[in-house]
Structure formats: C-alpha cells, structure tokens
Specification:
The complex is a heterodimer. By secondary structure, chain A is mainly alpha-helical. In chain A, a hairpin with a 2-residue loop joins strand 2 and strand 3. In chain A, helix 6 packs antiparallel against helix 11 and helix 6 runs parallel beside helix 13. Chain A is globular, with a radius of gyration of 26 Å. Chain A starts with a strand and ends with a helix. Chain B is mostly helical. Chain B has a domain of 35 residues. The N terminus of chain B is likely disordered. The chains are: A mainly alpha, B mainly alpha. The interface between A and B is large, with 55 and 39 residues.
Chain lengths: 708, 53
C-alpha cells in the first residue's frame, strides 16, 4: 500500500480562532456592563435595549455559544484532522458551518436586545433561530462524521469520543428543550408548563454546562495538554472510564438546580445522588490532565501555554468539587438564588473555559502562522492579570453569597425578620464593585492577548493548507481473535455515536417518564385559574424584559422565606405557566406572591423610578412601559396557542379576549386615577401591573376561604 | 416540604432510582473490567495517536 499525501485545512481553524477572540471580547464586555449596571443603575440608560434584563442574556449567550462555541469548533477542526489523519470532509461544509454559526450569533444578539426571548435561561432564542441552530449543528456533525469515516487511523482517540458525545447530546438537549408553539415569527410558548418546564429546562441547562462547556473542552484537554507538554496522557485507561462515567452520570444531575422547589422530592433526590457521584469522573479527568505533566513541571514554568492549561484544569477541578457540594440540599439551601452561584459558574467559565481557550490560541496561532509568539512577556502578563481577575471576581462573590443568604435568614429575638430585602441589596454594593474590578482585569488580559496574537499574525506567514502523509486504512481489517467488545466501539464511530446516545438518553428518559406522569398527578388547586388576556400580555412583557434574570418566582419551604414572601410555592400553582418563570437568582425579591402587596399606583411609580418607592434600589427604570401602547395584535393567536397547550379557556374565548382585556385595563386605569395618576388604559404598564397584581392571588383566595 | 404524595400516587416510583443505580453500576463495572483487561500494546498505541503527525 502506498503512502497517501493530503493537506490539513488550517483556514477554517483560523476563522474560528478569530471569531473566538472577537466574540470573547464582545461577550466579556457585555458581562462587564451588567456588572457595572448593578453598581451604577444609571448605566441602564433608561432604554429598553440596554437594560440589565436584556443585556444579561446577551452576555450569557455570547460567552457560552459565541466565545466557547467558536472555541470548540476551532479546537475540534484542528485536532480532529490530525487525530484521524485526514482533511476535513468538505471545505464547503466547513464554510457553511462557520458562517452559519456567526449568523446565529448576530441574530441572537439582535433578537435578545429587541426583547425577543423565550424566557428560558440559556435557551432564550426564539424558534426560527432554534431551527437555524439545528441545521448548522447538523452541518457540523455531517462534516465531523464525514472526516471520521475517511480517516487513516483506525483507532478513534479519546478526544474524538468526547466530540461525538458532544454532538449527539447537544442535539438531543436542544431539540427536546426547544419544543414550543409558535405564535408569531418571533414569539412562542414553551410546550411544557410549570414543574415540567422547570425539569426539562434544567435538564437542558445543566447539560448545556456538561456537553457544551465540559465534554468538548475535555476532548480538547486530551489533545492539547499532551501536545503542549510533548508527552502522552497519563493514563489512557483512566480516560476511557472517565469518558463513560462522565457522560452517563452528568445527564441525571439537572434537578439539583431545583432543590427545595415545587419539583417532586424523588426527582430532587435522584439529582442529588448523581451529582455527588459526578465528582469521581470529573476528578478522574482532572487528575489525568494534571498527571500528564508529571516529571515535566519545569516546563510549566517556561511555557505560557502550559501555564494556561494547568490553571484551566485546576479551575475545572475546583468547580467540579464545588458542584457536587452545592447539590447537597443543606448547602444548596444557603447558596441557591445568591451570588455564590455566580462565583461558582465564573470559576468554571473564566478559569476552565477561558484559560483553556487562551492556552489553545497561544499554541495554535504561532503554529499556523509558522512563527513564534510575538511576546512571551505579554502572554505572561495576560496569565497573571487573568488569574488575578478570577480571584478578584470570585472571592467577593463568595463572600456576598454567604452574606446575602445569612441576611435573608436572620431573625430578631422577637422572631421578626431582621432585614428588609432592600438592606440585603444595598449591602452587596462593595462586593459588586469588586466583582466589576475583577471582570475588568480579566478583560484587560484578553485585550493584551488580542494585541499579542495580532502582532504574531502580522509577523508570521499563514499556512492555509498543511502537508501531511499517512498510510490509508487497509480495506480488510482482521480483528484480533481475543478482540474485546469495547474495541468494536472504539473502531466504529457510528457505534460510538449510538452507544453514547443510548447512555445519555437513559438518564433523560428515567427522569422524564415520571415527570410526564406528574402532569396527571399534580394535586390540582381548584382556585388556580388561567391568566386573563391582560395578565397574559403582561406576563409576556415580564418575559420580554428579562425580569426573571433578577426576580425568582419560587418560595422555598423555609421559615425565612415564608415569613418574607408568604406561603411556599406548590406544584399546582404553575400549571398554566408556559414557560415557567421560577428564575435562578434573587438580585431583587421573589415576586410569586407580590399580587395585592402594593397598590397599582405603587407599581406605576416604581416603574418610573424604582428608588422613589424603594430608596437604594438598583432596579433599572422602565419608563417606556408608560409610553408604549400595548400591542394586542397577536392576542387571539396567543389565546389559541394556550388552548392548544391545554389551558382551559372556554371555546371561542379568543374572540372575546380583547374585550376582556379592555375591560380589565379600564379598571386598572380607574384605580390609578384614584391615586392621582392619569394614564391611557392602552399602555404596556397597565398589562404589567395586571400581571404583577395577579401573582399569588389564586392561593390567597384559598386561605381566605379556609379561615371563614 | 415532603412531596410524599408523588411517591404514593405514582405507583412503583421508588424503583426508578434503584433501576438507575443498578444500570450505572453494571455499566461502570463492565467498562472497568474492560479497561483493566485491555491489551497493553493497544493502549500504548492509542495513547500515542496525537504524536503520529
């Protein structure tokens, strides 16, 4: 057999690398802006497009799907070709993949700024973009499998297993979580409601962390650490166990985001058990990465690439130790809804994903441009300023989290809550300021890197097609007589894909089957009624403005929460919530029982200037709600969509909906007038007030009736 | 909040966690056995795949 000559495609890798850097800068700048908005609310600029509630999803989507997403593709396109000794399957598919992904990012940023959102965290994009994501993802998979099938190395290296698991699991998560009923081109309702929606969403949310932020990066770790250190991975045996155990366990752990909520107890327990077990494969992977450097630690001192990779893997180890701990119910009771969680995710995002990406960039760019890095000194500076940035970010956030939580739970000797919620907010200001400083440092590091890499590109000469040669695979492979079943998987990418899918589907199926049984088993609360048309429109504004990014709608069964907010939340209360709006962070107070707590005029004034009602509040102003007319053009379609989803509006209600909406609007207008506020009944704020005043009312009626 | 009613109203729900644990254990055991039985030469080859270009 003759040696075949071929070329690796570096061009696509280069594009993805540039996109990684640019979107990284954009996404991190977004993060810095929202961090500063919490300290200086004036930076919300009193404009819808720039308020926290809209910029925060832009930040999260940009860093996850734009920065890390392009980072994944950069690393996969580089390493996959070299691991299978073949050029990417199709240059055209590579091109479609690259430009398609960038198009998604631009559409995502624009639509989120415009308030087009599904209101489900990390899956905010509306249905047309969801479809586009699916198509581009298929192109990626097609290109990847095409390459693998044409390979010249029979054994699929462990990194490729991680890539394949990433492909198949992200596809599954994205499709299942995005099932929604379109109402208009940019408005849809989640197919699931309340408790079910929460379970599906956090099954997705948790595994987006697992299969978008973790498995592809573990694959990159298994390629780039050995390459940078120039020695093979510590234990290949361990990597096999690491892979299977990790993908098997991760998929179950979603419910740990919903501890003490209205999600059934058995699902919570299942989530806890699997989350705790996850520490084993996670640390197995970390140890495998770090021990690859055994006997080569002196290299870490000189090689900036290794420095970044080592800190990345260490941060991974810290975050994956913390994750299982946070899943313990007693720890979660303290940490949930606080800034502790923000610290936790940023150790992962800044440390693990960020530093691994930077390490790879410092490795790849000089290689592809056939030169040395422009300045080692600047790269070292980036390393130190970045590390410092992570510390200055994370430590104040941990501190803030503990403080918030204990202030929420403090009682006086007389048994009264010690602190107003607002006290717990104003106390956070120094910590939020420190966090913004940490973020600034980190961003400065990235700017230094951008300059350094730009200079490297300028002095180097790009090699678009890299020559390589290898023997083709023999046509007839004769397995060893003692061949093991696992070898059969390792040689065959399709089998690997199928087995991975089965492994990740098991967890999902076992969690969901009872979840869907829950529908018929939710103790229905007779007094819980569907939203009125005006409240439904108000709820859609609540979703549009991203209120859920700061306000939870879930009272946990703790004395401190019941005393502060009222009766704890029941599963039956959320049966008409498409999508659920439980939230994951309490920068502001919980709102699930806010209905009737304040007069309509309070809310009106609060939207104009929150500090006029709550001095010291950091909530943005929402004056456009007072100016803009409520758009009821899709009301009919919305009611019909809700009916399709099983919300029991009477037959023909869609036709009467607008009349009902007008009537309720006028009541609120009259209420406001009593308090001296003159406004048209057609403004958005009227719908918003209607929704807020409805929250928790259903249950209150019950307790009043019971006491009679 | 004990959602004991779910455990009572969905018949046999208690079996779910047991099934999951059993499946994981079996799977994990099989992978571990394989890994320790795997051919040393083969593992060495696999380990060095990144260095063959």
């Amino acid at each position: 057999m003759e040696i075949e000559k071929f070329q690796y495609d570096n061009k696509t890798v280069k594009w993805f690398a540039y996109a990684t850097i640019i979107w990284g800068l954009v996404g991190m700048l977004g993060g810095l802006i929202i961090a500063l908005q919490l300290v200086f609310p004036v930076l919300n600029f009193d404009t819808a497009y720039t308020t926290y509630g809209r910029v925060r999803p832009i930040h999260t989507n940009a860093v996850i799907f734009a920065f890390v997403g392009n980072g994944i593709f950069m690393g996969v396109y580089y390493s996959l070709q070299r691991l299978v000794k073949a050029r990417m399957f199709s240059d055209l598919l590579s091109k479609i993949h690259f430009w398609g992904w960038q198009l998604i990012i631009v559409l995502a940023a624009a639509s989120l700024a415009l308030g087009k959102t599904t209101g489900k965290e990390y899956a905010e994009l509306e249905w047309p973009i969801d479809i586009l994501i699916t198509l581009v993802w298929v192109v990626f998979g097609w290109n990847m499998f095409g390459t693998i099938l044409r390979r010249r190395e029979r054994h699929l290296y462990v990194a490729i297993w991680f890539y394949i698991a990433t492909f198949v699991t992200v596809a599954m998560l994205h499709i299942v979580n995005s099932i929604e009923i379109p109402v208009t081109l940019f408005k849809s309702y989640s197919y699931y409601a309340g408790v079910q929606d929460a379970l599906v969403q956090w099954w997705y949310g948790h595994n987006a962390v697992a299969f978008f932020l973790t498995t592809p990066y573990l694959g990159l770790m298994y390629y780039f650490i050995p390459k940078a250190a120039n020695r093979p991975v510590y234990s290949y045996r361990l990597s096999i166990i690491h892979f299977w155990a990790l993908i098997f366990l991760y998929i179950w752990a979603g419910p740990h985001h919903l501890l003490y909520t209205a999600v059934p107890d058995w699902a919570q327990s299942l989530g806890v058990v699997f989350s705790v077990m996850l520490i084993a494969p996670s640390w197995g992977g970390m140890i495998n990465g770090l021990l690859t450097l055994r006997g080569a630690w002196d290299k870490v001192r000189d090689d900036v690439v290794l420095k970044f990779l080592v800190v990345a893997v260490t941060a991974y180890g810290m975050a994956t130790f913390e994750g299982p701990m946070l899943s313990l119910k007693s720890v979660n009771a303290v940490a949930h809804f606080t800034d502790w969680i923000v610290a936790h995710v940023h150790v992962g995002a800044l440390g693990w994903n960020g530093f691994l990406t930077f390490g790879i960039l410092y490795y790849l760019i000089p290689k592809m441009f056939q030169t040395n890095l422009y300045s080692k000194k600047l790269a070292n500076m980036h390393f130190w300023i970045g590390t410092l940035g992570i510390l200055v970010y994370a430590i104040p956030m941990y501190w803030a989290g503990f403080m918030q939580s204990s202030m929420w739970k403090d009682f006086t000797e007389e048994g009264q809550l010690q602190w107003q919620f607002l006290d717990t907010v104003t106390r956070m200001m120094p910590f939020y300021a420190a966090r913004a400083l940490g973020g600034t440092l980190y961003l400065v590091g990235v700017i230094i890197m951008t300059y350094n890499l730009f200079k490297t590109v300028a002095i180097g000469k790009f090699l678009p097609n890299e020559d390589a040669e290898a023997m083709p695979l023999s046509e007839n492979y004769t397995p060893h007589s003692k061949d093991h079943w696992h070898r059969w998987i390792e040689r065959k990418p399709i089998q690997l894909l199928v087995v991975s899918l089965v492994v990740v589907a098991i967890g999902g199926i076992i969690e969901f089957v009872p979840t869907f049984l829950v529908k018929s088993n939710i103790p229905t609360i007779a007094s819980v009624k569907p939203y009125t048309p005006l409240e439904l429109e108000g709820r859609d504004i609540y979703i549009r403005e991203g209120c859920y990014t700061c306000h939870s709608q879930m009272i946990r069964p703790f004395r401190s929460e019941v005393a502060r907010y009222g009766e704890y939340s029941k599963a039956g209360e959320f049966v008409y919530d498409h999508p659920f709006q439980w939230g994951s962070k309490r920068t502001g107070p919980d709102l699930v029982r806010v209905g009737g707590k304040y007069p309509d005029s309070w809310h009106y004034n609060h939207f104009i200037e929150p500090t006029s009602m709550s001095p010291g509040s950091i909530m943005p102003t929402y004056t456009w709600l007072l100016d803009d007319d409520l758009d009821v053009s899709s009301l009919k379609a919305k009611i019909k969509a809700m009916q399709t989803l099983g919300v029991p509006y009477p037959d023909g209600f869609a036709e009467m909906a607008e009349a009902s909406l007008r009537k309720q609007s006028q009541e609120i207008q009259a209420n406001l007038k009593k308090d001296g506020i003159e406004t048209s009944s057609e403004k958005e704020v009227i719908a918003m007030i209607a929704y807020l005043q409805r929250l928790g009312k259903d249950i209150k009626t019950v307790s009043v009736n019971n006491t009679k | 909040m004990k959602f004991i009613n779910y455990l009572q109203s969905i018949s046999g729900i208690g079996i779910f966690p047991m099934i999951s644990l059993f499946m994981f254990f079996t799977f994990f055991a099989l992978v571990t056995i394989y890994v320790f039985k795997a051919d040393k030469k083969y593992i060495e080859h696999a380990k060095n795949v990144p260095f063959e270009n």
